[in-house]
Amino acid sequence: MKITDAKVFVNSPGRNFVTLKIYTDEGIYGLGDATLNGRELSVAAYLTEHLLPCIIGRDPFEIEDIWQYGYKGAYWRRGPVTMSAIGAIDVALWDLKGKALNTPVYNLLGGRSRNGLLVYTHANGKDIAETIEKVHAEKEKGYRAIRIQSGVPGLEKIYGISKDGKAYEPAIRGGLPAEETWDSSKYLNFLPKLAEKVRVEFGDDLHLLHDSHHRLTPIEAARLGKSLEPYHFFWLEDTVPAELQEGFRIIRQHTTTPLAVGEVFNTIYDCQQLITEQLIDYIRMTVSHGGGLTPMKKIAALAELYHVKTGCHGATDMSPICLAACLHLGTAINNFGIQEHMRHNALTDEVFPHAYYFEDGFLHVGDAPGLGVDFDEKKAEQYPYEKAYLPVNRLGDGTLFSW
Ligand code: CS2
Ligand code: MG
Fold it and tell me: For 215-269, how does the pLDDT look when each residue is reduced to its tens digit (9 = 90+)?
C-alpha cells in the first residue's frame, strides 16, 4: 500500500478544527486531528508546506519510521506546532492501519485492558450556588467524576466560566486576545469554601477535580493542595506552569492531594522528571498535541513504572478524532487513569460521526476498524475557519501572567 495524497481541512463546525486526511492507492484513508487552539494555521502550514510532501509514496504501515522522520528529519525539534503536525500524521496512519487490517486501533496497541473508560466532565458556575447546580445536572447525566470551577468573588472574569451560560469556549473570535485579570490570594482563600460546599452537598463518592490553569507558585499550590485534603479531590490540575519540573518537589513535600499536569506538553522531555521522580499522579498529555499514539504509548509505558496514570486532555478544542485516539490508547494500556470528556456540540458530532459512546459515567470506544471516526468534508466546508485567540491574563497591577 502507498500513500498517494494528503489534505488538510481548516474549518469551524462548532469551533475551529484542523483535520488531516491521508489517502492511499487502495482507497483506504486515515484521519488525524491537527487542531492547536489559537494557532491552527501554523500547524496547517507545517503540514502542507513541510511534512506532507515527504510522506507521499511512503508505505503507511511504516508508522514508527515515518514518526522518526517527522521528529528527527526537521533538525528543529519539539514544540506544540511541530508535535501537533507530527501527531496528526501519526494518528492518521494508525487509523489507516486499523482499517486495512479490519480491527480497532486498540488491538494494535496490545488489545483491550478494560471495557469502558472512566470520564470526567466540567461543571462551571459563576458562584458556588450555580456550580452546585451544574454538578447536579452533570451527575444526572451519569457522570461519576466532575471538574468544578467557579467564579471568584472580586474577580471580574476567570478561566472556565462562560458569561452567557453556554458551554465554556475559551477561544474568542474576532479581534486580538481578550484580557482577563487574576488574583491568586482571592482564589486561594475562596477555593476551599467551594470544595467544602460541594463535598457536603454530594458526599464522598463523587470524584471531584479542579484545574488551577497554571496560575500558582509551588508554595501556593502546596497551600491549596493542603487546604483541599479534607475534601479528597481526584486531582488538582495544572497548579504550576511545569517548565521547572523540579518545582513540583515543593508541592509534593506538603500535600497528599493528587497532582495532574501536562495538557500543554508535547514530548516526553516535558514530563520525564515529573514522572521519574513521582512528582505527579496523572500525566495530562493528549494524543494530538503529544506527537501521536506512537510517542504516547511510550510515555504511558514510562509512567507505568512510576505509578503515574494517564489523564488525557479532552477539551472541545481537540476534535473527536483526538478523543477517539485517546480512548483507544486508554482502552489498551494498563495505567489508564481517567479521560476528560468536555462534550462536543451537536454540529461537531455531525461533522465527525464516531463509534465511541457515553454510558453511565464511562466512554466506550466501540469496535469499528481504525479509530471509528469519520469526517464529513462537505458539511465541514459550510463552516469556514474564523481566527480565534485564547485570552491573555494580567494581575491587578497589569503584570502579564499565565492564562
Ligand atoms: C482546560 C482546557 O480542559 C482543560 O483542562 O485546561 O479547557 C484549556 O483551557 C483549553 O484546552 C485551551 O485551549
Ligand atoms: Mg486544564
Answer: 999 999 999 999 999 999 999 999 999 999 999 999 999 999 999 999 999 999 9
CATH level 3 topology of 108-368+388-401: TIM Barrel (3.20.20)
Neighbours of 223 (CB within 10 A): 18
- The CA distance from 349 to 354, in Å, is 8
- CATH superfamily entry for domain 3-104: Enolase-like, N-terminal domain (3.30.390.10)
* Residue 349 DSSP one-character state: H
pLDDT per position as a tens digit, 109-151: 999 999 999 999 999 999 999 999 999 999 999 999 999 999 9
Cα-only R_g, the chain: 20
Indicate the pTM of the whole model.
0.98
Report how far ligand 1's centroid is from the alpha carbon of 295 (Å): 21
Question: Minimal CA–CA distance to 325: which of 53, 98, 154?
Answer: 98
| 66 Cα–ligand 2 center, Å | 30
Among 168, 317, 319, 403, which residue has the most ligand 1 atoms within 8 Å of its CB, making it the best to mutate?
A: 317
Query: Rounded to whole angstroms, how far apart are CA atoms 369 and 107?
Result: 10
Smallest Cα–Cα separation from 92: which of 38, 49, 28?
Answer: 28
